[in-house]
Automatic annotation (TrEMBL), chain A:
Entry GO CC: ATP-binding cassette (ABC) transporter complex, substrate-binding subunit-containing
UniProt key word Phosphoprotein: no
Lineage: Bacteria, Bacillati, Actinomycetota, Actinomycetes, Micrococcales
Any GO MF annotation of the entry: ABC-type transporter activity
Pfam families the UniProt entry points to: ABC_tran, CysA_C_terminal
Residue stretches making up the ABC transporter domain: 4-236
SUPFAM superfamilies xref list: MOP-like, P-loop containing nucleoside triphosphate hydrolases
SMART domains, alphabetized: AAA
Matches recorded under PANTHER family: MALTODEXTRIN IMPORT ATP-BINDING PROTEIN MSMX, OSMOPROTECTIVE COMPOUNDS UPTAKE ATP-BINDING PROTEIN GGTA
Protein name listed in UniProt: ABC transporter ATP-binding protein
Automatic annotation (TrEMBL), chain B:
Highest taxon of the lineage: Bacteria
Keywords: Kinase, Transferase
Organism: Ornithinimicrobium tianjinense
Name of this protein: LPS kinase
Record GO terms (molecular function): kinase activity
């Protein structure tokens, strides 16, 4: 097992004028499950392939433990791409299906047997080791395929969108299975997905990329509560955070006819007369005073205890993102109604309007 | 129930297939029992009028992606199966959605590796299949294609003048780039080695590999052959200014390997005493392209080499070395190749492709002549071959028999 270090690692594809991965700095701890997430084209796969040795590194370094693997051939790196296309061999026993890569690597028989048995124990496949794959259920076969990567005992597991070809239900089940298996094995894992929900539910830490640049790397909790910039604020969370440009007023922010108090040293970090305010849908409340952000309700989504309303501010373009708020499911406002919202004070996310960087605590 | 068929030139008969039934349960009447490689998806061969198609049930995004990749591979002139259609929007009788289907044309006279190994016509089968696969992999890599899942199962083999020519059949993981990195090539080779060793171990476990053959040792051959060929096709060479004949020699060597050199980089050092050459663009199919130009025959590379040699002998025997090459080729086609291949009775024509039969006839004539101690005329050779050799051969236009495995691992999880 080992740490993984991206040290200003950069990849520029031939003919491209901007890097696809730009001076990436991440330290993955021993045994950690790190998820790389970002929109399409943000460089997640490229970053993973640089670690696997499939893409050349044009600048900086990549380390596994304290080995510099920047220019090492893929097979010498001791990493395993899990969920590659694994075929099961019909005439071979489950044990042989799991252990054959070790046989190719020239490991002694006794060691192969021992490693296969260990993996089978973790995967609940012990009773089936002498059977043929045909005699197994679909789920057991999938675990045999996982077992093949496990017996190699690599220092790092790499997974690139392993669930993308599964349907939604199976995806949720398999997600849980992979995460719990990784925790039991304790093997350092780097996992790529474009799905922020998957990232937030699986990772010990999540690294958000955009245009090849690392935006933030943090625990899911911290990422949710404390996005470092406007991009991360809008990308993480479902439904998405409300982000709006608001004028700075004396001692606070002007929300309609109401001033939301904000500490002076935060306001002091603003440049220009506006800031970007971010409020999550669950951090809003309907004000009884009739003051605050006036929102016209377009859609009410009832979820039992809660309801989400999707609305628009007066003067908002039809193409703009809807304003979303979570309200009490028993007494939701009706479609077409205008309601006034105020943020719950302690959960404000305030960003510099020019740089997009976070300025609130 | 609205199904959606995306096809290059749609065959209306596609609409009559039972799309609302999971592929696994399709009625016998539609199916052609042909052997396949190992696969995780359900794959079936289906008769559609005169032709046979391969149908693979796979999720829609993957089906569309593979369809597109196969189209692009063929556009690049790479040997791959021909994509025909993607069928999506399938719904079962009880209303549940079914996966999409990718449809490719069944590659005529192709043999999956299990069929190749189960026939064992000559003992160096393993060597010859791996050599063909190495050529395919080098060709793909030169064109910027990363395969991602190189294996015997994902390859089809066609006879090629006693050797094999390999075709890519599974492009699910393939990616096409402007150029490949060393790491991508190494990864493909590493995966190829592991998969081939696994597939050979499986043949061994099933009793289909010769006693004493070592799967891992055979698999090592892919690495070795690949490196040799890759170096010959791409490496830089330096020599003294006076040795300029070495340029021609390099080109001839590449031609002999079946490649044309479309671009060669040549430079001298500052004082001009040494010359450096490096092939930049090479293109497979040196002999088959030449034969195609001369005769219009579309055959595999080694078959073409064989036919071109026969054309040369014909030219010498008829003293027409001075004549226009195309005229002689035309005469050879009309007087030799076509009459001879037409002599094969229709009921034996599904055994082998005409060019392969022609190759075997040339071999057979050599064998008969050696036994007789003098030259045997080709007419006698044909008579003997059609009477004694060909009837014993299996039909290979669409190989029957040998059932096949597919072991889906994307089924519902049960824990
Ligand atoms: N082989 C390549 N050659 C040239 N450009 C490439 C290559 N591979 C990726 N790119 C470019 O690099 C950028 C990052 O691509 P990458 O595949 O790493 O992104 P990603 O975040 O994984 O996206 P996705 O979720 O769509 O897979 C994109 O702009 C892409 O077009
Ligand atoms: N067009 C074709 N012509 C001849 N044989 C074909 C064709 N298409 C598929 N086959 C056969 O079907 C087998 C399975 O197809 P394929 O490899 O595409 O399936 P798969 O489920 O994607 O495999 P894998 O498990 O490797 O991902 C192949 O090994 C080949 O023998
Ligand atoms: Mg396949
Ligand atoms: Mg496949």
């Amino acid at each position: 097992m080992a740490t993984v270090t991206y040290d200003k690692a950069t990849r520029i594809y031939p003919g491209a004028d901007t890097p696809s991965v730009d001076q990436l700095d991440i330290e993955v701890a021993d045994g950690e499950f790190l998820v790389l997430v970002g929109p399409s084209g943000s460089g997640k796969s490229t970053a993973l392939r640089m670690l696997a040795g499939l893409e050349e590194v044009n600048g900086g370094r990549i380390l596994i433990g304290d080995r510099d693997v920047t220019h090492m051939p893929p097979k010498d790196r001791d990493v395993a791409m899990v969920f590659q296309n694994y075929a099961l061999y019909p005439h071979m026993s489950v044990a042989d299906n799991m252990g054959f890569a070790l046989k190719i690597a020239g490991k002694p028989k006794a060691e192969i047997r021992q490693r296969v048995e260990e993996a089978a124990k973790i995967l609940d496949l012990e009773p089936y080791l002498e059977r043929k794959p045909k005699a197994l259920s679909g789920g057991q076969r999938q675990r045999v395929a996982m077992g093949r990567a496990i017996v190699r005992q690599p220092q790092v597991f790499l997974m690139d969108e392993p669930l993308s070809n599964l349907d939604a239900k199976l995806r949720v089940q398999t997600r849980t299975q992979i995460a719990s298996l990784q925790r039991r094995l304790g093997v350092t894992t780097v996992y790529v997905t474009h799905d922020q929900v998957e990232a937030m539910t699986m990772g010990d830490r999540v690294a958000v990329l955009n245009f090849g640049v690392l935006q933030q790397v943090d625990t899911p909790r911290r990422m949710y509560d404390h996005p470092d910039n406007v991009f991360v604020a809008g990308f993480i969370g479902s439904p998405a955070m409300n982000l709006m440009s608001v004028p700075v007023a004396d001692g606070g922010l002007k929300l309609g006819d109401y001033v939301q108090p904000v500490e002076r040293d935060v306001l002091g970090k603003a440049t220009g007369s506006e800031v970007v305010l971010g409020v999550r849908p669950e951090d809003l409340e309907i004000s009884d005073s009739g003051r605050g952000l006036a929102i016209e309700v377009d859609v009410v989504e009832e979820l039992g205890a809660d309801a989400y309303i999707y609305g628009s501010m007066p003067g908002q373009d039809a193409g703009d993102k809807p304003f979303i708020a979570r309200v009490d499911g028993r007494t939701p406002p009706a479609k077409g109604e205008v309601v006034h919202f105020q943020p719950k004070g302690e959960h404000l996310h305030i960003f510099n309007a020019e740089s997009g960087e976070r300025i609130s605590d | 129930m609205a199904i959606d068929i995306t096809a290059i030139s749609p065959n209306p008969a596609l609409l009559d297939l039972p799309w609302s039934v999971p592929l696994e349960d399709w009625p016998e009447e539609h199916l052609a029992a042909l052997p396949r490689g190992i696969s995780r998806h359900v794959v079936r061969f289906v008769r559609l009028g005169q032709e046979v198609i391969a149908v693979k049930e796979i999720s829609e995004p993957l089906a569309r992606r593979e369809f597109q990749t196969l189209r692009n591979l063929r556009r690049l002139g790479q040997p791959a199966v021909e994509p025909l259609a993607v069928v999506s929007g399938r719904v079962a009788g009880d209303g549940t959605a079914l996966d999409a289907c990718l449809i490719t044309r069944h590659l005529r006279f192709s043999l999956p590796y299990r069929a190749v190994f189960s026939q064992r016509l000559r003992d160096d089968t393993a060597r010859r299949t791996l050599d063909a696969l190495a050529v395919l992999l080098v060709r793909l890599h030169l064109a910027g294609v990363f395969w991602g899942d190189v294996s015997l199962s994902n390859t089809l083999f066609r006879r090629d003048a006693g050797d094999f020519a390999a075709y890519l059949v599974d492009a699910e993981t393939a990616e096409i780039h402007p150029e490949l990195s060393r790491g991508q090539r190494e990864h493909d080779l590493f995966v190829a080695h592991g998969n081939i060793a696994g597939e050979l171990m499986d043949l061994e476990a099933g009793g289909h590999l010769d006693e004493g053959e070592d799967p891992i040792e055979i698999a090592n051959r892919i690495m070795h052959r690949y490196d040799l060929l890759w170096n010959e096709l791409t490496s830089e060479e330096r020599f003294e200014r006076g040795d300029r004949w070495k340029v021609d020699e390099r080109i001839r060597r590449l031609n002999n390997l079946g490649f044309d050199v479309d671009e060669l980089e040549m430079s001298t050092d500052l004082d001009g005493t040494t010359i450096r050459i490096q092939p930049k663009v090479v293109d497979a199919g040196h002999h088959s392209r030449r034969l195609m130009r001369l005769t219009g025959l579309d055959v595999e590379e080694n078959q073409a080499r064989r036919l071109l040699n026969d054309l040369d002998s014909y030219r010498a025997a008829t003293h027409r070395q001075g004549d226009d090459e195309e005229l002689v080729a035309h005469a050879w086609l009309n007087q030799i190749y076509e009459p001879i291949t037409r002599t094969v009775p229709p009921q034996l024509r599904d055994k082998l492709e005409p060019a392969e039969i022609f190759h075997e006839l040339l071999e057979h004539r050599w064998y008969l002549s050696e036994r007789a101690g003098h030259d045997i005329p080709i007419e006698d050779t044909v008579r003997d071959y059609v009477a004694t050799v060909l009837p014993g051969r299996p039909d290979e236009v669409t190989v029957l028999g040998v059932d096949t495995e597919e072991i889906p691992i994307t089924a519902i999880l049960d824990s």
